[in-house]
Amino acid sequence: MQFGFRPSKGLTFTVLTILQIFGLYIFLKGFLLTHQTFDLQGQRFEPWQDFPLTQQHTPVKKPTTIPSQKGFKRTVIVLIDALRFDFAIHAPTATTKAEEYYRNQFPIMQKLTQEQPASSLLYQFRADPPTTTMQRIKGLMTGSLPTFIDAGSNFASSAVNEDHLLRHLANKTMYFLGDDTWVNLFPESFVKERTFDSDSFKMLDLDSVDNAILARLWEVLDKDDWQVTIAHFLGVDHCGHTYGPSDPNMKRKLNQMNDIVERLVSDYVDEDTLLVVMGDHGMSVEGDHGGESVEELISTLFMHSGRPLTFTDDYYQALYYRIHETRALRLGYDIASISQRLGYDATSYPVVAQIHIVPSLAYLLNVPIPFGNLGALLPDTLMPKYPDIHSRMRNVLHMVQEFRTNALQVKHYLDQYAQQTHQLDFSPEKLQFITHHLYAAEDIMAQLMQTPDFSDSIQKDHSTYLEQLEEAILEYDAFLISTIKYCKAIWAQFDTGCMFVGIVLLGFSTLASLWLMHREPRASYSRMSLVGASVFVACLAASCLRYQFPEALVARGWFEKMEQVDWVGACMAVAVCCMAFTLRPQGAASSDWYVIIIAHIVQACTLGSNSFVIWEDRVTRHVLATLTLAWIVRNLQVAITKTDRALALLYPILFLIVLRLTSAIGQCREEQFPYCSYFHSGMLEFNLENYTGYGTIAFVIVLYGMVIFSTTTLNQIAGLTIGACYLIPSIMVLFRIFYEIGAKSLKIEQGQREMPLMVHHVLDVYMPRVVYALTFIGNNMILADWYFNSRPRRIMSWALFFLWTPLLAVVQRPLGAALILASPWIIKLLATGKSNSLLIRLTMLHFLGHHLFFATGHQTTFTSLPWKAAFVGFEDMNYYGGMILVTLATVAGYIITWFGWLVLLSENPHQRQTLHLLILLQSIPTFLSAIFIFVLKRHLMTWKIFAPRFLFQLLLQVSSHVAAIILEKIVE
Predict the structure, then answer these.
(1) Which residues of 602-640 are buried (b: 16+ CB within 10 A; e: fewer)?
(2) Which end of the chain is more exposed for a tag (fewer CB within 10 A), N or C?
(3) Where are the beta strands (DSSP E) in 285-375?
(4) What is the mean pLDDT of residues 91-110?
(5) 3-state DSSP call for residue 278?
(6) Please, where are the H alpha helices in 422-462?
């Protein structure tokens, strides 16, 4: 048979990359959760509209409508970013020294609750994960639940395209001050002349945003025209991100917030004014947020007014407690865990979901509840007009009617959702177990209205009727809370069919990669065409069977998101993979290939265990140590003399020493406490009163010496110009490291550490730009010299490696930057060896990338993403530049090891086929991770542990394929 097609390795890698990306795309379509949003306006429901819902054709007298108090004329909403609940309450003593900076520093809210209990309400405010500011603000205004992707959102803009509270306050004069996230989410709600927003991404210090608010806030409140004022303070959140909660600056910021609330209460709150102070999320022990730990979920809600907001009589307090306790049980809130983790008695304060603030504010401000709200009214806030604690029947009946109004709004939303989406999960039959609570409440009220003396007993305290009214409230509330639980479950539905097709495509492309490891780069046109066409037609015919059983599949949520073009693409992908199987073998593969692949499959299987994922940093170190032993064995096999045997041991032992030293630095993830302790950048300080100070000075001296030595080496192999392109950026990185350590060492309790604006620009903007520019210039000079002057690949590979380390280091924290700058000398250890150990050393490079990822202060969690890297070299937020920098900061350790591949392959050019290993070492765990996610998609830890690790694996998968394509071009 004549062979006429000779695909290059570059083409082969490109095709494999496309196949993998397409498989991941199909899988993610089924995995990433969505729910439909609608741009419909909420309407005002009459309390007894359509009463009773269960007997529309039976005439039943409607209960008397008990009028509510008038809505507040003025409202001040103060959102303090990351106001964890234990920051806002009093503790007798701080149990540890670390707690003294945030315990008892914000006493005003608890003081008012104790002194004016009728006018002050304090809640534990529980966020729905993810605890990111944008998602939280959206939930606080819409009352909707978050999902990974809102299908109705406009991805070209962050604007909210669903009903929200601010839309219903449009007829009021509204001022806004602070975080511009609000303006981006609700652009139509704010008038430019009354909006004083600050770029939250640009201003990362503790005081800039807060001071800008305070410069305008009192002036605004002194005016007579305002009706709603919103102020979003960021200092507490930024303090957490920068220093953590246990820092003198946290004490200063909390004291400042306390003073602000005190002034608001004393000077601006009267009977017509409502003050709402709340946090959007909490703060982890490291000072971050975005995850779902107790510390991140529990924030604060405080409401205060000059007029009574709630009843303080024991009867009402018992009823409120009963409702809150029932809600907490239904929603699965772990009160004991809150008490244990945050160090206070969580049973002393109600735990309320953040979305409950939406209908409650709508009630207090006398506006309609937003259309998509799923929140339930806070019972404590429901007071009728002319409240009288002795008229219990009247007061409780008022609560019943308001709960019914809330239930009507939620039922209307469910009906519209079913009508618009045609999802069977929202059909009346599926919702029956929820709506039976609503109908039970309606039956209770209908029976009461059919009782002759009920209406006459409203002004009296009839115990039997009171119990029935309480039961009606609990049934309405059960409907509301059950709806929240159900929607959370339904919007966590996966398209199993999409996920299955994605796994099949990933499996085929991974098998194709394995098959192509040792195949002739030649193919028969006729054989490939026949196989490809046959498989394509067969797959296309099989996919058409989906349309023969649409109802059964759709009812199970299978293939709901698969478009026709996706089916065609999937068929083509399988056909291309099958075409690869027509290539002939090309010699026998080394036994090392099979040992490494099998061992890697076993290691990748650990991604299906949450314990192994949590402790992956330690697992990686053990794997590296084991591979080092295999390297020693390979070296000793070819060692003849004593000198050879000594050298065979030297470099592996040095590598083990480096591995041991670098294993002491990193970042702990939440689940590892209290069994995790790393030395991190925050511990570096120039304080000569302890050993850390001397160690830090030695650390800086060694860094400077290493950079000078590296420059000397680079001058010798690549010339003075390339050496300068490395030295200048490296010195600038060292300046930034020195400054960050020095600034941390000078922390003071009063006043913020100020830095002249010019110094800030030099360190954070101009210096990084010089680093980027010199790296670009030096990179092009090396490639040009390589291309035109045919300089040895080995020299040019090392020159490129050294040149890129300052760029990768400038976006890291001090210890991570130091490790990146030292990485060429670590790779030098692995670059020394015989060809018989090449595969083992390349595999060690792969796992070294994992180790460097952890050692540079990263973890596979959303909270550990290095967002600050997005602003290194930029004065303003640049979305594309920021995305690139965050990606570089995250995968810097892997990029280092890919340069290591370049160095090793440049010294062993006849081993180009080993680039298949680079692809396989990421394709195998990606394929297995997809299977684990498919199997464990209902696991309790899916979104907290498995999903972040899987998404990180996708980033590595795509990046490694791109790296393989680039490396193939360079070493060819």
Answers:
(1) ebbebbbbbeebbbbbebbbebbbebbebbbebbeeebe
(2) N
(3) 298-305, 351-353
(4) 82
(5) strand
(6) 432-449
Residue indicated by tokens 């070819």: 638
Long-range contacts of 871-874, Cβ-Cβ distance < 8 Å, separation of 24 or more: 871/201, 871/202, 871/204, 871/764, 872/764, 872/768, 872/810, 872/811, 873/764, 873/765, 873/768, 873/769, 873/771, 873/772, 873/810, 874/765
- 480/473 Cα distance (integer angstroms): 11
Mean pLDDT, rounded, for 33-37: 77
CA 798 to chain centroid: 37
- pLDDT value of position 815: 93
Q: How far apart are CA 597 and CA 770, in angstroms?
A: 43
| Tokens coding 456 | 């006459």
Length of the chain: 972
**Burial class of residue 453 in the structure, from the number of CB atoms within 10 Å of its CB (0-12 exposed, 13-18 middle, 19+ buried):** exposed
Mean local confidence (pLDDT), 439-447: 93
Six-digit token string for 359:
């209908």
Query: Buried b / exposed e across 248-281, counting CB within 10 Å, b at 16+?
Result: ebbbbbbebbbebbeebbeebbeeebbbbbbbbb
Name the residue ranges covered by the structural domains of the chain: 9-30+495-580, 74-145+159-383, 591-678+816-972, 681-812
* pLDDT-above-70 percentage for the chain: 90
Q: How far apart are CA 697 and CA 688, in angstroms?
A: 9
Q: How far is Cα 407 from Cα 565, in angstroms, rounded to an integer?
A: 42
Distance, CA of 647 to CA of 168 (rounded, Å): 77
- 10 Å Cβ neighbour count for 807? 23
Where b means 16+ CB within 10 Å and e means fewer, 747-785 reads: eeeeebeeeeeeeeebbbeebbebbbebbeebbebbeeb
Q: What are phi and psi of 742, to 5 degrees?
A: -65, -40
* Residues 843/921, Cβ–Cβ less than 8 Å: yes
Q: Which sign does the torsion angle of CA 268, 272, 277, 280 carry?
A: negative
CA distance 316 to 469: 13
Kind and range of the H or E run holding 78? strand 74-80
Tell me the mean pLDDT in the region 421-444. 90
Coil, strand, or helix at residue 751? coil
Q: How far is residue 388's CA from residue 887's CA, in Å, rounded to a whole number?
A: 61
| pLDDT value of position 587 | 60
Could you please state the CATH topology (level 3) that the domain comprising 74-145+159-383 is classified under.
Alkaline Phosphatase, subunit A (3.40.720)
Judged against a pLDDT cut of 90, whether residue 210 lies above it is answered with yes
The predicted model scores a pTM of 0.83
CA 611 from chain centre, in angstroms, equals: 20
Backbone angles phi, psi at 896, to 5 degrees: -55, -45
d(CA 887, CA 808): 10
Query: In this predicted structure, what is the pLDDT of residue 622?
Result: 94
- The helix/strand/coil state of 199 is coil
For 635-661, the DSSP string reads HHHH--SHHHHHHHHHHHHHHHHHHHH
Q: Which residue has the tokens 């202060």?
A: 857
